[in-house]
């Protein structure tokens, strides 16, 4: 039995599918990272992905250029995130509730919007033409290397974008002026305010970036992963992204590993489907169970850390005496 | 035309807050170029308000401000900074997870290629300023990891790098150890030599004497005059600073104290910045007396109250109510022992703003048998008692169903007091019970406190209001540096001048004298 | 502002929010309906009046559809009142329904007792599940929100596993369980409709939760913690325990709702995805401003709109999912504290002025008398 699993895991196609499955989660998780760094919780990622996935397909269909679709998805993502921003920051709706409202639009409203724009019901399979899908990229040299080639080459262009974005988001947060201000606002908005930084402006910017990133995640789902848009397309990936952000402790790299972990567990679930003696459903539950356990362990270490810091201070004091 | 000898002139400044409190009344405040000017006064004297206006955080109701002879309208900190005014806040405005250099340049980041932050440049700037002003900091350390003294240097450098020529230092030594304070003073003198002007807010007389050129004393929102530091004695400063103006007298009989109710022994606490806030503190409060705790704020009073109500835990020491420990006990148990607390921060601890008056009055007793019939509340009893309390405590409101947050400060405090006093307490801890509320409510609350103590409650009154603490207390402790500077068994012959000298650390009673507050055992 | 004024303002604000949402709906309808008049008729009138007479069957359907969302609305109401953003309503509804279904299939019992036991066990399962995010929050300060979201999916997949690998009725084309025993079903109030006695239980639950929140010490403590946790602690309330309690009650209510819905509406268990009632419950609770007694009215409103959209999709070919957009719009404006804050400011100023004028008048009268 174990042999069977191992022989399955140690195949290049399994590695390939991990990366394929991780990409959309990674987009959304990075979106969560940026928003959370500025002190705003964007729980609307799920809905934003759903809606931008739809508009990605529509824009690509209308123009027959896949890249217009991607840009359209990003723009729609930004607009939706800013709507959350206006309600949460200006009209003082609780930001969690504002996000939930966007998710409502995402879950059912999209079906209506699809009908509104195309007259179709439930999915866009009939619209899809190969030109609308984001192209696969074979990376020269890498593709001919055994093992690595089949795993890392031949993904959608957006997959590469997702992993490059891990680096770019890190650069944004840690190497740019705006990133510095985002981190300052998220951690101590009074301090930021006292040196003339507009806290609201920074939070809008962070939400906008978060919307753009989740828009890319949406585009990946409908214009590559599922090849078209349908009602169950996002299936909780926006929420998983929030968990990945939490498990990655809000840092781009850590969040990437958390996303890969989800990707691994999902890929495993997919592979084990139909295998004797294994329930694909239970395997699918693993990443969620792991997240809960991860969150609890992380919280426990935080509680311990606070205690330790306090005790250390006291100890130092005793020594000084 | 304003005289150019002065870098800052504030003329006839009056500030009335929307709640009607006049924090400044016709204050004149002038600072000469290149001096260190002390701004002194008790808590609530109006120093912070005055400085907030100079830093653009508040706008004066009346009066004019001149900087370098030019009339200015300081509408925001950004404007104040552009006029060369910088402020070092008492609570640091720093981002803990950023490095020192990042904090330094926040909001004015050096960049290359348009958007990338030039971190190297930020470090260079930090090092350059650190060297120039002799303020040594580690540019690459995260702020959360550096000691308090260095955090303060970062704050000063932050102001300097933004072009400040006039520095407002708000109680800069309050968080520092003795060595750190000495170091800071050297640095400030170094800055002075380079032509910077400093406004130094402090209560500590020896510091003022050591470092400042001139000083302005404030009391009750007014200026008590400007003096050359060298020409004025510490006793004179203390007399000008500490004093009573409006005296609300409260009639009270001689106290007949009996058994000890609250017994505090050797309480010690060091806060997270390694500053000792409580130092072997011991005292007793007896049934039937009001023991006042006076002192300049920040000398351990808040920490003491927090320990007694388990809002914090001491490092060592005991506190018992009728022999039962209250340290580390759940609040439910402390209340069941008969302890009531009027909290200093009534908005955070004293009330639930959007709940009704009735709901606020019932918060400590909602589980009592008399208010419950089995699983359900006895609403009739609740309504009756609430209405009675509203009547007894003269809470001005439309009905018991009005939201507490909609009431005036004085009426909110009456609701808090009504709840705490009606719980049949054997020990009442009243922490700044009348701060910031109107005269009528103040008088009412003070009378009630006396009434309850005469009826047999032990009262511990913590107050920065000298008038209050002297009028109400039967006996009195003055706290200084986390310990007891003086104990007065009888307050009737006590004068402001004597109080001031103990409060400001000029005098200290002997151990034997202080130990008199421990009755028996 | 006085209490009455405040109520008046809140009503006005709610009305404007609904008006905006309906206006949005109008715009959509005019864009996509072939016959906008007919579509509007379907949306607004047809759910209750059809062909000049009361549309009884539709009204009964609306009442039936209210049942599960009253339960989840109440659940959210209790949890949000304690300031706990627990979003596991979805998972607990499904878990409660599934466990009740298993009892209904495999454990024969007397007719009257059977559904009662099923519903109670469903409720207990819901409550137990909520212990996970609740205890993690209270003991370790872990985010109950992320934890509860994950819990939803764990519940979903575990149930899917049992449904398809253990309890599936292989004779059926789709994945579903064996049929429930007749004794276990929640009886219809009106045969042939969706309205079951579950509706009555929902109304009773509403009254009980209302009493609980406003007439018992536990509900009172929940509300005080939600308003100001520090104050509650200082007042001597058992904050941690009550936070756990609020979430467990939330789980009990949604578990119960799930059980009643499954046993009332279906003959077998066939949910293969999270049912969505948890999210609708949040909308309902927001509309009801966390007041349990207002929950049925909010649920009625949502069920009415739902039915209207459904009719619109049948007769005027406007997709029923328009409801989600309308809901989202209402939801956003209802929860926006600063929405129409200028109007509120004006009302406050006006009231203060009036009071001052009254006082002056009184003073003048007194002065005249003297």
Keywords:
A: 321 residues, mainly alpha, ABC transporter involved in vitamin B12 uptake, BtuC, two-stranded antiparallel sheet, 2 strands, C: two-stranded antiparallel ribbon, globular
Provide a brief overview of the structure.
Chain A has helices at residues 2-9, 12-37, 45-63, 66-90, 95-118, 148-152, 157-175, 177-187, 189-194, 199-225, 237-247, 252-272, 280-320; strands at residues 136-137, 155-156. With 321 residues, chain A is mainly α.
What does this structure look like?
Chain C: It is a multi-pass membrane protein. The complex is a heterotrimer of chains A (321), B (521) and C (370). With 321 residues, chain A is mainly α. Chain A has a single domain, classed as ABC transporter involved in vitamin B12 uptake, BtuC. Chain A has 13 helices and 2 strands; from the N terminus they run αααααβαβααααααα. Chain A is globular, with a radius of gyration of 21 Å. The mean pLDDT of chain A is 88. Chain B has 521 residues and is of the alpha/beta class. Chain B folds into 3 domains: 236 residues, 3-Layer(aba) Sandwich (Rossmann fold); 189 residues, 3-Layer(aba) Sandwich (Rossmann fold), CATH 3.40.50; 71 residues, no CATH class. In chain B, the strands form 6 sheets. Chain B has a 6-stranded mixed sheet with strand order 6-9-10-3-11-12, with helices on both faces. A 6-stranded mixed sheet of chain B has the order 18-21-22-15-23-24, with helices on both faces. In chain B, helix 8 crosses helix 17 and helix 14 packs parallel to helix 15. Chain B is globular. Chain C has a domain of 242 residues. Helix content of chain C is 74%, strand content 1%.
The separation of the N and C termini of chain C measures 33 Å
Helical percentage of chain B:
25-40%
What proportion of the residues of chain B form beta strands (DSSP E)?
Answer: 25-35%
The two chains with the largest interface, and their residue counts, are: A-C, 50 and 50 residues
**Sheet with the most strands, sense and barrel status of chain B:** 6 strands, mixed
Helix content of chain C: over 70%
CATH superfamily of the largest domain in chain B: P-loop containing nucleotide triphosphate hydrolases
**Computed Rg of chain B:** 25 Å
Global mean pLDDT of chain B: 90
Pfam families (chain C): BPD_transp_2
GO molecular function, one term (chain C): transmembrane transporter activity
Keywords (chain C): Cell membrane, Membrane, Sugar transport, Transmembrane, Transmembrane helix, Transport
Main location (chain C): membrane
């Amino acid at each position: 039995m174990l042999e069977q699993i191992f022989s399955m895991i140690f195949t290049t196609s399994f590695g390939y599918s991990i990366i394929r499955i991780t990409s959309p989660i990674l987009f959304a998780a990075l979106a969560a990272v940026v928003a959370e760094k500025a002190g705003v919780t964007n729980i609307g990622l799920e809905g934003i992905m759903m809606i931008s996935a739809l508009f990605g397909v529509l824009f690509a269909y209308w123009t027959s250029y896949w890249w217009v679709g991607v840009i359209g998805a990003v723009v729609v993502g930004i607009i939706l995130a800013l709507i959350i921003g206006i309600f949460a920051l200006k009209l003082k709706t609780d930001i969690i509730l504002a996000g939930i409202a966007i998710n409502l639009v995402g879950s059912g409203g999209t079906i209506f919007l699809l009908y509104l724009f195309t007259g179709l019901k439930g999915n866009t399979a009939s619209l899809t033409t190969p030109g609308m899908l984001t192209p696969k990229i074979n990376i020269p040299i890498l593709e001919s290397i055994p093992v690595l080639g089949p795993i890392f080459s031949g993904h959608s262009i957006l997959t590469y974008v997702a992993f490059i974005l891990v680096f770019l988001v890190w650069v944004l947060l840690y190497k740019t002026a705006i990133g510095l201000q985002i981190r300052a606002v998220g951690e101590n908005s009074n301090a930021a305010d006292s040196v003339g930084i507009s806290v609201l402006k920074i939070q809008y910017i962070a939400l906008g970036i978060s919307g753009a990133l989740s828009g890319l995640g949406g585009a990946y789902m409908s214009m590559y992963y599922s090849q078209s848009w349908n009602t169950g397309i996002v299936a909780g990936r926006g929420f998983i992204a929030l968990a990945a952000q939490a498990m990655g402790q809000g840092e781009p790299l850590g969040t990437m590993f958390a996303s890969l972990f989800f990707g691994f567990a999902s890929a495993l679930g997919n592979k084990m489907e139909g295998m004797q003696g294994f329930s694909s459903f239970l395997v699918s539950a693993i990443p969620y169970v792991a997240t809960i356990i991860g969150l609890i362990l992380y919280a426990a270490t935080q509680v311990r850390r606070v205690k330790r810091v306090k005790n250390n201070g006291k100890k130092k004091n005793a020594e000084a005496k | 035309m304003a005289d150019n000898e002065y870098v800052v002139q504030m003329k006839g400044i009056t500030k009335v807050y929307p709640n009607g409190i006049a924090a400044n009344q016709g204050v004149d405040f002038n600072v000469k170029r290149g001096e260190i000017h002390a701004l002194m006064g008790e808590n609530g004297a109006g120093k912070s308000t005055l400085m907030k206006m100079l830093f653009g955080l508040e706008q004066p109701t009346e009066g004019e401000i001149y900087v370098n002879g030019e009339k200015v309208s300081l509408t925001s900190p950004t404007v104040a900074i552009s006029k060369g005014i910088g402020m070092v806040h008492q609570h640091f405005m720093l981002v803990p997870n950023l490095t020192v250099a990042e904090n330094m340049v926040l909001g004015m980041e050096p960049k290359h290629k348009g958007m990338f932050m030039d971190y190297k440049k930020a470090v260079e700037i930090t090092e350059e300023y650190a060297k120039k002003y002799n303020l040594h900091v580690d540019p690459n350390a995260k702020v959360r990891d550096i000691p308090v003294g260095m955090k303060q240097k970062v704050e000063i450098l932050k102001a300097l790098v933004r072009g400040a020529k006039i520095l407002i230092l708000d109680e800069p030594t309050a968080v520092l150890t003795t060595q750190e304070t000495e170091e800071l003073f050297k640095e400030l003198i170094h800055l002075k030599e380079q032509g910077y002007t400093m406004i130094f807010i402090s209560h500590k007389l020896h510091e003022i004497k050591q470092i400042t050129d001139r000083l302005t004393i404030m009391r009750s929102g007014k200026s008590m005059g400007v003096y050359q530091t060298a020409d004025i004695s510490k006793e004179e400063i203390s007399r000008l600073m500490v004093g009573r103006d409006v005296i609300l007298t409260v009639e009270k009989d001689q106290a007949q104290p009996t058994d000890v109710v609250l017994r505090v022994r050797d309480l010690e606490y060091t806060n997270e910045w390694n500053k000792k806030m409580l130092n072997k503190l011991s005292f007793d409060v007896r049934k039937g007396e009001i023991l006042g705790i006076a002192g300049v704020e920040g000398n351990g009073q808040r920490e003491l109250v927090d320990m007694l109500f388990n809002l914090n835990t001491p490092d060592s020491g005991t506190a018992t109510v009728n022999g039962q420990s209250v340290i580390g006990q759940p609040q439910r148990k402390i209340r069941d022992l008969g302890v009531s607390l009027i909290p200093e921060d009534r908005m955070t601890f004293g009330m639930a703003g959007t709940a009704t008056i009735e709901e606020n009055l019932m918060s400590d007793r909602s589980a009592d048998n008399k208010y419950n019939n089995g699983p359900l509340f006895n609403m009739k009893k609740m309504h009756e008692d609430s209405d009675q309390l509203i009547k007894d405590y003269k809470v001005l409101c439309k009905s018991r169903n009005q939201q507490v947050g909609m009431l005036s400060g004085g009426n909110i405090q009456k609701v808090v007091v009504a709840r705490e006093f009606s719980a049949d307490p054997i020990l009442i801890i009243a922490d700044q019970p009348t701060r910031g509320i109107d005269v009528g409510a103040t008088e009412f609350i003070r009378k009630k406190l006396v009434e309850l103590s005469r009826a047999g409650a032990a009262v511990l009154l913590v107050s920065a209001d000298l008038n209050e603490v002297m009028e109400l207390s039967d006996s009195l402790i003055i706290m200084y540096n986390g310990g007891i500077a003086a104990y007065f068994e009888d307050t009737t012959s006590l004068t402001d001048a004597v109080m001031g000298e103990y409060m400001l650390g000029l005098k200290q009673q002997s151990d034997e004298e202080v130990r008199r507050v421990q009755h028996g055992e | 502002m006085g209490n009455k004024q405040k109520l008046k303002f809140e009503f006005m604000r709610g009305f404007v929010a609904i008006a905006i949402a309906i206006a949005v709906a109008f715009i959509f309808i005019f864009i996509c309906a072939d016959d906008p008049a007919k579509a509007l008729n379907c949306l607004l009138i047809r759910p209750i009046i059809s062909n000049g007479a009361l549309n009884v069957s539709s009204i009964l359907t609306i009442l039936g559809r209210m049942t599960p969302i009253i339960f989840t609305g109440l659940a959210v109401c209790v949890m949000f009142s304690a300031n706990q953003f627990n979003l596991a309503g979805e998972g607990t509804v499904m878990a409660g329904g599934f466990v009740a279904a298993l009892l209904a299939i495999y454990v024969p019992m007397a007719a009257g007792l059977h559904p009662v036991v099923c519903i109670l066990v469903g409720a207990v399962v819901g409550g137990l599940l909520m212990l996970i995010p609740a205890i993690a929050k209270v003991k370790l300060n872990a985010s109950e929100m992320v934890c509860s979201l994950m819990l939803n999916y764990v519940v979903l997949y575990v149930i899917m596993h049992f449904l398809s690998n253990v309890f599936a009725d292989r004779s059926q084309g789709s994945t579903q369980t064996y049929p429930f025993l007749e004794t276990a079903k929640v009886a219809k109030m009106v045969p042939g409709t969706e309205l079951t006695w579950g509706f009555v239980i929902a109304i009773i639950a509403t009254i009980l939760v209302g009493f609980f929140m406003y007439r018992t010490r536990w509900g009172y403590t929940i509300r005080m913690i939600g308003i100001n946790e520090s104050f509650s602690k200082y007042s001597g309330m058992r904050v941690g325990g009550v936070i756990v309690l609020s979430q467990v009650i939330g789980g009990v209510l949604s578990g119960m709702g799930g059980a009643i819905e499954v046993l009332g509406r279906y003959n077998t268990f066939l949910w293969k995805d999270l049912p969505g009632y948890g999210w609708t419950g949040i909308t309902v609770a927001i509309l009801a401003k966390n007041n349990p007694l207002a929950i049925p009215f909010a649920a009625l409103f949502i069920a009415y709109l739902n039915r209207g959209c459904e009719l619109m999709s049948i007769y005027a070919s406007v997709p029923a999912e328009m409801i989600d957009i309308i809901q989202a719009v209402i939801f956003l404006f209802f929860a926006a504290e600063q929405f129409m804050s200028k109007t509120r400011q004006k009302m406050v100023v006006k009231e203060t002025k009036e009071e001052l004028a009254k006082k002056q008048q009184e003073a003048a009268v007194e002065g005249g008398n003297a």
